[in-house]
Amino acid sequence: MKKSEKEQLEKVMQRLESGELVDQACWSFIKELNSYSEERLESVAIRDGYRTYTYRQMFRYWERYAEAFSGVDITARNHSRAALIGTPLTETVFAFYGLNMAGASVSLIYPFDLFDDKQIESMIEREQITDLIVSELYAFPKLMKRLLLNKERLGLNNIIVLGSPMGGEFGVPALELVRNTNRELFRELEGGLLMEDLLNQYEAYPVAYSKGKSDVVLHTTGTVSGMHKPVPMTDKAMNAFVVTAMKAKETYKDFEKAPKHMVTYLTLNMSWVYAMVDMLHTPLGLGMEIVSLPVGATNPRYSEAIQHYGINVLFTSKNILDSWLKTMPDIDLSKLKIVFMGGTYVSPDYKKQFNDYLKSCGSTARIINGYGLSELGGACLLCPSTREDDAIGFLLPGFQAKIYVEDEDLCYDISDGPRTGVLLLRSETMSTGRLGDTVFFELDQVDDDEYFNTHDLVRVNEDGSLTCIGRSNQYFVNNAGVRFDAGLVENAITSQPGIVACGLAPEFQKMLHDNVPVLYAEMSKKGAGAVGTLRKALIQAFIKDGVLADTNLPSQCVIVETIPLNSSGKVDARKLASGTVTGSRYSVKPVWMEDKVVDILLVPAPEGENATNGAGVPEELRGDPYTILSEVFAAIPDLNKGRYSRLFKIPGLREMVMKLTGFDMNNIPASVRNMTPTMFNLAYRKYMMPLMKGVNTMSKQKKNTPNAFGTMFQGMKPMMPPMMPPMPFMPGMGWFGKKDNVKEKENSVVENIKSKAGNLKSSIPTYWDKMIEMQKSTMEASRDQYNQFFEHMMDMEDTFASSLSEDAISLLGIAAFAMSPKEFMNWVKQFQEARNAYFVERVDAQFNFFFKKQEQVREMVDSAAKNGTKKKEDAEKAEAEQDEAAEE
What we know:
The chain has 888 residues and is α/β, with parallel strands linked by helices. Helix content is 43%, strand content 19%.
């Protein structure tokens, strides 16, 4: 390092120690930390599968995006707040820091939050959104048309579609097709803007730099009524977390093995604090190399990428690692040195199991778990990898904690010794909970300082570490103010026939890091009929009488011998919540139809630590995108084997995509037919039309010259950012530069055109195959949906049959029936299953016939094309032989 560079580094460290460095915009903070030397500027900042950017290049791209945003006045001077889809792609990173450079506030949003009319309007109003920037991948035609139609009413100044190229070795061809189609259809709509056009139009436009503070609105992974809770952060708070990580790197023993050049992976959506702060902003502040691949951790080749790019610092979650433990991919992880586990609780047994797997792959890394909150900017405590108990660890540098003991109404410091109480936290990374005049959550005053109440009950251990043992706000879900009205539920259920007493109590679910509502019931009659009686009581109260909203539906029921009462004769909720009361446990499975509960099933559940696993969550969390994402992680093993139809089975995802694309499941052939012109139109306009224009120009000029093709490529230049590789089954588009700069030889150009024509011709059968494959996937998904419905119906009949009598019915003076009600119901079920098997077999035969005919037509067309090509080649060969003979 040069002397001048050392002096510059010393200045940076002095500003860091004094606290001056963090008090600036996010982009400026990252740039100052990485600009003290040429070596740092030339080191790799981001790579995305087929493009690599150094820190110097990345900073220039931030400026390019800031120029474009300044050109359309998404700036601080215009009081702009842009909602940006947090897709984990390079372009999203550029857009975020470009907006931050122009002084605009940014709200990073989860894509699914856009897809409901009421939710998007509520979000725009609540977060005071002025501009909307949507990734191509999620710019579905119906969605964008609706947003553009309501643009003025929503108060939006600009609606921009952001480029989302997904090329390279780890690209996802299906998603590349989706985003290309979305972009081309968006071009046909009026009132929208494309980011690639803005980058060209406003190149070198003066950036509207701002010295004021801009908000960064991130969101929780959990939802309230289907919406992710906003977490407003200041630039200073986000920068302060980077400083916390720097200090932790110097003090935590686990970080001693951190390599000099650290490489990490942006795995999750940037709307979440864990991804934006921990996985992106902090690594950039530390000068790390970030790998950003299409769809992050849901990329089917996610585990391969870790080996391929030599990831040595991995931020992950249990949902991601679960897919690894199912498939146990045989990969070389010898370069992996540090693994952070965030987002959920992990048991000591799970840590040991995964640590053993890491060891088998050659890694010396061991899981470092801890405790974090979105409202505090991410991780607050870290637990050493050597711990083998349930501890959540020690406070990170810069964090302060208070332990509130409710019985004493006093707050203690951790240093005051072991005790149990509610955890309150504060740090410079803490969110204010406010956005303008809107308050999203309140902070508690303790000793003249503001603390965030986590509502987590913790135990202070002898060594100063903490262990989380439950929730203090017993009837709240996700710390969001959603209350289960225990008294109302208890009164309504107790009034039903066969119920002696009942009590609703929360049971802490470590995987959800939240409370699962469990209904304990004492029945008047014991035995096999008790579960049927309880089910009838639930149906009567929640469905038939409608005295209880489905938001109060418990996640589980436990049939007990007696309900414990306190000294005043009321249900002892504390004893129920303690877990000492046991009985026959059942998970409550509501049957939904058109957003209404039409039936309730009770499915046996285990006891012990895993009792509430799979119990589900209340209505407030039903359809939560994070739940859908968890299902996507679970589907990765199937996707790796090419079973892409597995995606259609994910609850909620399939319906959402069909809704946005206008695909009618009740008329699949018509929907496929309607999509076909769009797909061919895309290929025609993007590839065939320019080729035909070039050939036409050449024929008119009657000469082979590069200038003949000038109109074909006039004014074309690589988009900013660079163009992605073409789809595998479509011909590539070359770039010849401007007309005056064309220096290619005539023969080279002619051969190029011939090559493109050949590529196009060979791509048509492949494209046809893709269409057939898509139809097959759709048909398979429809069949799976029907099978799922039939299984649901059989489950309902099983539950109904379990409540029937096993004795044959006999009436006075009439001989007894040959079968009991339960036997008769089982006979009916057998008949239905046989009939269903025959029906499915006939439908499969019809589909097979349909696809066989399509493949026959495709083979005929392909054969005709090959014959035509052969005849042409024979003619050319004969002509060449004649020319040779003439020359001789």
